[in-house]
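> forwarded from #structure-qc
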């Protein structure tokens, strides 16, 4: 049985895009959530949790293209328990089947850099003298 869940946290690493044998895209990534608490004059993270998240189809491709390690994100989906056996020991963890994901704009966004190094942005430093941006 699954339960609806919304995570507000940070990407623990870059999402990993793979394809099933039938060509269906699947992205796996981890979101870290924590509660901040002030002790004396210092802030610290408590209740830190690492959530394994899985996105499918077009969402998987969008997640891989737009989210990167360290980005503040909001992820919603269905939480479910995954069970398996390893070396004769039963294992389990709570995972999230992602239905929606995006940047949390409460903090400055950290955009995913997926460029192939194919050139510099001509507008990064104001463009050439006398030119206007194309927007």
């Amino acid at each position: 049985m699954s339960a609806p869940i919304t995570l507000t946290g940070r990407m623990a690493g870059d999402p990993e895009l793979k394809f099933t044998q039938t060509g269906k895209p699947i992205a796996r990534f981890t979101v870290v959530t924590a509660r901040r608490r002030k002790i004396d004059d210092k802030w610290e993270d408590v209740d830190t949790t690492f959530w394994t998240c899985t996105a499918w189809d077009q969402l998987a491709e969008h997640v891989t293209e737009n989210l990167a390690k360290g980005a503040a994100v909001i992820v919603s989906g269905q939480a479910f328990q995954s069970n398996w056996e390893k070396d004769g020991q039963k294992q389990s963890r709570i995972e999230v089947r992602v239905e929606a994901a995006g940047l949390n704009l409460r903090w400055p966004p950290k955009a995913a850099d997926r460029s192939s190094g194919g050139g510099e942005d001509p507008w990064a430093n104001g463009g050439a003298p006398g030119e206007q941006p194309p927007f």
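QC bot note: DSSP finds one helix and six strands in the chain. The beta strands are 3-11, 16-19, 25-39, 42-56, 72-86, 89-103.
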